[in-house]
């Protein structure tokens, strides 16, 4: 496990801390540049801007992606640390040096997805390590090979233990529990943080390269992350339980007019489309088409999830 201490907008932190517990947040950066400092499950800590040189909370890194400001708002909403889209845009342009919206009305952001976020009350704020120099404007990575890293990790762990079970943490997730129970810093992180709805949407979108798995459609505003086994029926926010579908296909999939055969991963189109609506020839053309596989490194749809959908949802 590594840690990253990111310089944090004070308004972003206070808004989210007052909001209370949430599954995930978007720690966005205005640059749009790749963020590669952490692996999934590593700790990302919040340090307020000077003169408030304190570590005030954190979360567990899931993934970093590039999204336009509008897409980030549509995906994470209040999890962007702003109360309105207009407020978020104002902050984006402030950090981009006041560049006018005329030239780039929807800037691309670096969206650092953090799961199981936590916020320390002021009495538990941790003084920034001496190695975090005043000229650091973005953040600093900490590994297991120095005293500052060990002291910081122990302070964070102690705070999480104090907060365990209180409303500020609600029910600790798997990644949080792993840190609370960890005997020392530096051991490999084997626990991936749980995803929320927003994280699920982003991860499924990235897994399928921003293309519908059936049609190859690339127009992102009409693509949606579909749960194979419905979330309301116990399906998880996991890539193995997701497919990226064009919005009309998503609707048909959820209603049971489309399915994916679990073994060959081929599209099944229900005859009830024709029977009920006397139409659907465009959809019947998709019958037997093999759905796209996710990128290497992402989980494929779990056969059990596809079987559940075929058995419990599909109108065969």
Automatic annotation (TrEMBL):
An MF annotation (GO) of this entry: endonuclease activity
Domain HNH nuclease as annotated: residue spans: 212-261
Keywords (A to Z) from UniProt: Endonuclease, Hydrolase, Nuclease
Pfam families in UniProt: HNH_2
UniProt key word Nuclease: yes
Name under which the protein is recorded: HNH endonuclease
Lineage summary: Bacteria, Thermotogati, Deinococcota, Deinococci, Deinococcales
